[in-house]
Each structure stands twice: as C-alpha cells, then as structure tokens.
Amino acid sequence: MSGSRLARVRIFIYSDIEGGVRLHVEGEKTTRECGDMLEAIDAAREVAKGKDAVLVVYDAFGKVIFTQPL
Questions:
Q1: How do beta strands 53-58 and 21-25 pair?
Q2: What pTM was estimated for this model as a whole?
Q3: Under the phi-then-psi rule, with left for phi > 0, alpha for psi from -120 to 50, and beta for the rest, what region is 66?
C-alpha cells in the first residue's frame, strides 16, 4: 500500500469554569475563546478543512459529551 496518510488532528471544545466556550487544537499552545458552542463548532470546521480531524466536545466537568470526525 502506497501513499501518505495525514496525521489525525484532534480539536477540543469545552466550557470553562466561568461558562465560556473554548476551542483548542491539539499541538497548538493557545486556545480560542468562542461566543457559544455553535460558534466553536463552526470554528472547528474551518480549522479542519483539508485535514483528517476529529472533534471532541467536553462539558465543564471534563466529561466527554461527544466525538465526531470532521
């Protein structure tokens, strides 16, 4: 089997203690603040364009709500 396989990028969305929504891309040192969950999901889709990516969404307590390939 030939060809190169892209490394999967994990994109995390979570609520912080103050109720804000954050987006973090694995391997980046910073997080992005988003207005709400829908804005964060839209931002994750933009980041994922052209990449093998998976979205992981957590609640404020660190529990995984869902995962989804993008």
A1: unpaired
A2: 0.81
A3: beta
CA distance 31 to 12: 9
Q: Which residue is it, tokens 């994750």?
A: 44
Rounded CA Rg of the chain:
13
Report CA 60 to chain centroid distance, whole Å.
15
The closest of 20, 2, 21 to 12, measured between CA atoms, is: 21
Q: What is the pLDDT along the chain (70 residues), one digit of tens a residue?
A: 445 566 789 999 998 878 889 999 999 999 999 999 999 999 999 999 999 999 999 988 889 999 999 8
